[in-house]
Amino acid sequence: MPAASPAFWQERGAAGVSLLPLAALFRVLSTLRRSAFRRGVKVAVRLPVPVVVVGNIAVGGSGKTPVVDWLVGVLRQHGYRPGIVSRGYGGAEPGPCLVPVGGAAQQYGDEPLLLSRLTGCPVAIGRDRPAAGALLLQAHPDCDVIVSDDGMQHYRLARDVEIAVVDEAVLGNCWPLPAGPLREGLSRLREVDLVIAHGALSDGLRARIGHGHVFPMELVGERFRTLDDGGCSVSAAHFQGRKTHALAGIGRPERFFAQLEGMGLEVERHAFPDHHAFVPADLDFAPGEAKIMTSKDAVKCAPFATADCWEFPVQARIGSGAADRILEKLSNGRQTA
Fold first, then answer.
1. Other CB atoms closer than 10 Å to residue 335's CB: what's the count?
2. pTM (2 decimals)?
3. 167 within 8 A of 55, measured Cβ to Cβ
4. Which CATH superfamily is domain 42-218+318-331 in?
5. End-to-end CA distance of the chain
6. Residues linked to residue 317 through DSSP beta bridges, in sequence order
7. Span 215-267, pLDDT tens digits
């Protein structure tokens, strides 16, 4: 399981400085790799349908999964029949394979399983993204657009639209791995088709992005539902005056905790590493006291959840104009194909 991000990624201190030679090597190698695809030394695989990539430039959760869910809804509203490909991180299945509706997060990964349940779209996973996409299209020939979840650095899969999801807090000290959290430099954000900002961006970062296609996003939710009975849904008022626990195994658990507290809940915080493989023992405390978790964690805990476990589903609310920008790019691609 991935460990929590190193604390020194948030500052430009001695620990990070000591790793700068390795970071410089990583930056050179990643730049050379991307350049090889751009110059045709390495050949990207182009699928027979358009591909929209949703990704980021840093290690850590920035809110990509809700963006993919939102994007699928936008595409459907405009007549597209989307499918999703994903790495399947955290699952035992290397792929390529299709994610079954009743699959287990431990086998297929928490994010692909959640996206399958949220969207109802066909989802394929695999380390080889082009192969996963080809498998999906073979099984679902009516699919006319592929959304690649967390696929920005997977250059073997040719793409028609690139969306970068940015949470400035996740960028930390803005140094490359392993001195900092960046997979690619900030200059990469100048090249994507649009940036979706999860939270406010500083003027300095906006200047470095260098284009006006930046759209704000917030995650919104109002209702809570039990894991052992999908028919039970309550508002935040249900938890007022009750001892409540908040569990999160995501990239930025503090954002989830703060959202619950902003709704008036007094919660005891329980943070786990991103993609944590929950087991029954993780929930075996404070019987009878409410335990609230994210949807990504809920898909892993549902098989052994008890009556005191609750999910807080959220949806992405994204600034006007983002959908138009994506649809315009896809329409232009159709006309030139």
1. 7
2. 0.93
3. no
4. P-loop containing nucleotide triphosphate hydrolases (3.40.50.300)
5. 42
6. 218
7. 999 999 999 999 876 668 999 999 988 989 999 998 889 999 999 999 999 99
